[in-house]
Specification:
Layout: H1 2-30, H2 38-44, H3 60-77, E1 83-95, E2 105-115, E3 122-131, E4 142-147
Antiparallel strand pairs: 1-2, 2-3, 3-4
Length: about 160
Amino acid sequence: MGARLTAHRSTLARRSLAALMGAALFLGSAASGQAASFLEKNFWLSGPNFDGVVPACDTPAALSRIQSRFATTEGRFWNSALKIETFDHVRQIAFRPWGEEYQPRRYCSARAFVSDGTRPPVKHTVYYSIIEDGGFIGFSWGVEWCVVGLDRGWGYPPNCKMALP
């Protein structure tokens, strides 16, 4: 009989604790919210701080990233041997077109000579942007690009227009 009474008290204690926690949760959610204090607004919610240090459009590292990633994408997803052999007419289109408070981007265009190795190279326009903190987990700058006429995944349709500012 004593074991049965102990089990009943234990069950009653658990139910009471659950009811108490449910009531506390209900009352906590029913309380009105408060705005951030002066300290929270001015020190703790500072947001991202960008330096505006973005490589130039003709940086060899940016162009080689585009070349290697284009070749990888073509080979892996489209079973194609297309590669960008070289670039020319590299120029900047815009830098920070939306203002200082946005993530810094340098928009560029270039002419790429694309070939599969068996035919002569064909000229294609490439639109790309170099983005501050746009690399792997934001450690470095990153590059987003689109080759006009070869946007097979429709990442920037129509004709890479969405890759422009």
